[in-house]
Amino acid sequence: MTALLVLAVAAAGGVGAVARLVLDGLLRARVRIAYPLGTTVINVTGSFLLGLVTGLALAHGLPAEWRAVLGTGFLGGYTTFSTASYETVRLAQQRRYRAAFVNGVGMLVLALAAAGLGLWLGELG
Amino acid sequence: MHLHPRSILLVFAGGALGTSVRYLLSLAVPPVGGVPLITLLLNVTGAFVLGWLLQSLALRGPDEGVRRDLRLFAGTGILGGYTTYSSLAVDTDGLIAAQSVGLSILYAVATIAIGAAASVAGIALASTIARRRAERGRR
User: Fold this and answer.
1) CA-CA distances (angstroms) from residue B131 to A101, B4, B61, B68, B123?
2) What pLDDT digit, counting tens, does each position of B7-23 carry?
3) pLDDT computed for residue A1 by the predictor
4) What does pTM read for this prediction?
5) Burial class, B73, CB count within 10 angstroms (exposed 0-12 / middle 13-18 / buried 19+)
6) Measured CA angle at B136 (ends B135, B139), to 5 deg
7) Cβ atoms of residues A31 and A38 within 8 Å
8) CA distance B13 to B15
9) How many helices (H) and strands (E) does chain A have?
10) Run of H or E residues at B30
11) How far apart are CA A91 and CA A84, in angstroms?
12) If you average pLDDT over residues B55-62, what whole number do you get?
């Protein structure tokens, strides 16, 4: 691990967080529903892409530095657990239990499937 | 839309900060029996702090000015970068592939459940602090 790699991971994380801000804002403006759709879309697409990066690293020798920058950096910064958890709790506090369940368990199941698909495609090459 | 250069700069700086803390901590603490306990710890503590932050800000007034800057820098930026959902998903799939199905379910469900409890606790802490402050103000 070099200082340069840490800086690259940090910068990629910053770019990922900005991508999350922009995509969430776009979805909020375009899709007017009372469900925090943005976080689900971000976390599921991010899980797919991290599966892909991990699969490529495991089966096709994607260098560890690239895995750190793209995976830990960009996709780690792009996806978020804290907001997902907060939104699940907020939905439950509003007594919207079905929406809270979908946001908590549904998002997890979708993300696991998306990550699995990414891993499979990545290892396939 | 949140496309003001100021918002982008705040989220970029916070995201870079949160991501580097997560990266360095995950390098320092290796997985235990294949389970990335550090990711669990980061996600749960991040959920707690975000609950506290968003509730504190909401109780102090509308989402504008300094409060909005703080939400974008610390909430969307730092805590968004510090926590991760993609690693949760890929690591859980990795445990399934390693034939540890029970452990993978335990890891994923524990993260979601303890994370939700942490969000509730963070929100409750902010409400309690605000109530005590209001009571002191009345005396």
Assistant:
1) 30, 34, 15, 22, 12
2) 999 999 999 999 999 99
3) 62
4) 0.95
5) buried
6) 90
7) no
8) 6
9) 7, 0
10) none
11) 11
12) 96
Contact A82 B123 (CB under 8 A): no
Q: Are A74 and B51 in contact (CB under 8 A)?
A: no
Q: What's the per-residue H, E or C state across B68-95?
A: HHHHHHHHHHHHHHHCCCHHHHHHHHHH
> ipTM score of the complex?
0.95
Residue B15 to residue A50, Cβ atoms within 8 A: no
Picking from B27, B90, B101, B119 by the largest number of A CB atoms within 10 A of its own CB, the best residue to mutate is: B90
> Amino acid letter at B103?
L
The verdict on a CB contact (< 8 Å) between B2 and A16 is no
Cα B66 → chain centroid:
20
Which amino acid, residue A48? F
* Terminal Cα-to-Cα distance of chain A (whole angstroms): 27
Low-confidence ranges of chain A (pLDDT < 50): none
Q: Which among B127, B123, B2, B136 is positioned nearest to B51, based on CA atoms?
A: B123
With beta carbons under 8 A apart, name residues in chain B contacting A51. 89-90, 93
CA distance A11 to A41: 23
- Beta-carbon contacts of B96 under 8 Å, excluding residues fewer than 6 positions away, are B104
